Amino acid sequence: MRDMQAGVPDRIGGHQMKNVKLTIDNQDIAVPADSSILDAAKKLNINIPTMCYLNGYDRFTSCMICVVYEANTDRLLPACSAIVSEGMRIATENEFVREAQKDALDFLLSEHVGDCDAPCQRACPAYMNIPLMIRQIEDGRLNEAIQTIKKDIPLPAVLGRICPAPCEKGCHRKSFDSPVSICLLKRYAADVDLAQASPYRPIPQNYSGKKAAVIGAGPTGLSAAYYILQYGHACDVYDNNPLPGGKLRYGVSDEVLSKDVLDQEIENIAKMGADFLMGRSLGKDLKWDELINVYDAVILAVGKTDPEVFESSGIELSRRSIVIDKKTYQTSLPGFFAGGNAVSVSESQMAIRAVAHGKNLSYSVNQFLKGDSVTGPISRFQSILGKIREDEAREFLKEAENRDRVPPANLEQGYTDVEAVRESGRCFGCDCRKPDSCRLRQYSEEYQASQRRFTFVERKKFQKNIQHDKVVYEPGKCIKCGLCVQITKNAGEKFGLAFVERGFDVRVQTSLGVPLSQGLEKAAPECVSACPTGALSWRDRDKKGNISP
After folding, report:
1. N or C: which end of the chain has fewer CB within 10 A?
2. How deeply is 255 buried, as exposed, middle or buried, from its count of CB atoms within 10 A (0-12, 13-18, 19+)?
3. pLDDT for 437-458, tens place per residue?
């Protein structure tokens, strides 16, 4: 039977349009002669990355992420705007295409002004979403705040009292006056939670039928158990001490950390399903062959241990520390993982690092128990603003309170409700409003793009336009795709948005320089939705359009 698609021409305006035959990734297709390469690829279900393309609008070809290779002419072409021609041989994935796509991303990133994740979050070893917690506290959404905290930190009331707050060293506000009191805010939310009849506990996944042993009930072991249980696996926790807590219990004074607070947070882990088996030593009460036969995975969070304990284990040691794959936390013995002081002496200096080890290694353990390839936690791409200048701090202050740091009236008791809200209002909110739906970030991860490859003498100034009661415009994140310009024109906006200047200085702003509220009277939702980065976003960070679909 002959190719019906190639034999039937399309009709446009009463005239027959000839179909054009071409090959894309070794697949033959015939499409109308006015089709773009992107149109043809879509009909074959071939995905070509795009950022400046939106169906129904003119193709501006600003991002160049959609380039493909045409073999007959040995050229790279933008798939969104290049029109098909007879006999084209297109490759959407080869070394030339991928290199060109990465070049395009690297160049876009070199001009990108903003942080993907806030510097406080990047500085936190457990990578807690600190800005979200702060906004929830400010809004009085404490039930949501503790869920945000406990997603990444299983012992927040404990760490709120003893953590040296590395997150605050990364806070952008530090360069203006003083950092936000992140640690005290975390403690505040955690203390409110502990005061409830039933403190918040994450709901675990369905039981997997697998069981893990955690050797060591210090911060690393407690954290590992907390996450293993959430993944749906059973968990036994062993320790040679009479009570769990490790150095949190036996190395921190009661004046600094009330053992009642520690006990409450450990009890929360026990109620999640952890069985604590105390007074049992590795190598004496716990034999290697028994661990291998009884458990599907074993986590070693034992701290510094006598090397003789590991003689018959098959686990490689180095200077009394367990040797691990630093990405996956796997030891040389299959099914055995290790973290905390067992692998690094430096972990004893900061409990938050030990807790982060427990969280991260449990990710690998879960992969192992599920039978998946063990890769370890995934690191996301980060656009980094860097040190901010005083004039840039003023831009952040457009949405933050310009007040001095709020100290608690009673340091021993921590923040009151009023104090916590006032301190939360100081946060610059410097994290991106579209951290998951930004296509620049998504493709930068996929293509391993570099923000530092193309550098300029001085980066562009961070700016924030909040002249609209619902929309924020950050011009440093704009890739000049022109979609918002077309959308406002089609919507019949009286002023709308327009390109100004030329060449590298081109930028998007409201026509005649009117306030953003006048430029986006009708088309704000469509513009925010179409914007491929966080340049145009909702002021309400929880609003649809700022969140990945």
Report:
1. N
2. exposed
3. 999 999 999 999 999 998 767 8
